[in-house]
Amino acid sequence: MSRVTELTKKVMLFENTYVRINIPKWLKESEKWSENRIADNGDKSKEVYQLRYMLNKICPNLHHFCPKPTAENMRGLSPEQRNQMISNYDRENTQVGLQDSDGKVIQVGVKYTEEEYEKMLSILKPALDYPEDVLNIREQGYCSMKDVTDLYKLAFSRKYGRMETEYRSMQYELNLKELTDKLRTRDDVVKVGEGKGTRYYLPIFGLHNTIRDSIR
Question: Is the separation of the CB atoms in 200 and 207 below 8 Å?
């Protein structure tokens, strides 16, 4: 499996909801960025520059499944185990290829080709598969109330853990309803449709903090 495939598939995991909802916006931004690079005598194709832009946005925001090498997590480990923890964490979401001290490849890196760009788009298709009017809204940095629910669920589970989240199910539902009702009344909300079929879209920027702060 290529490194681009490995990294891009992570976007569709629930833990990377924030990354997934930003994909339309980042892809739109990558078009302008790539055009500017080419205009500045760039020697790569538009697709390659778009790939670079997208991965530079995606990778730093991907969830780490490997334990973070903090002092607490490394307490009691041998030097070798500590080095391994640091190495696993650092390379988990990186684009670069890596070799050991003997020159043996331990991770194949991204090669930045047009083929990799096309592969990335094929994997990200579910994050871009929207009606034109909705896609235009998402390209401007907005997300749906379904996305808000997913972000809330993720933030709640991170705060309390899976078992505790199930125990606090009533609190979860009440907090979520209070949050979504409040968000629907914001001045910056975009409404699509009318009546019971109205869909609400909110700016992604700052939403993560709003959701986190709503959890009690």
Answer: no
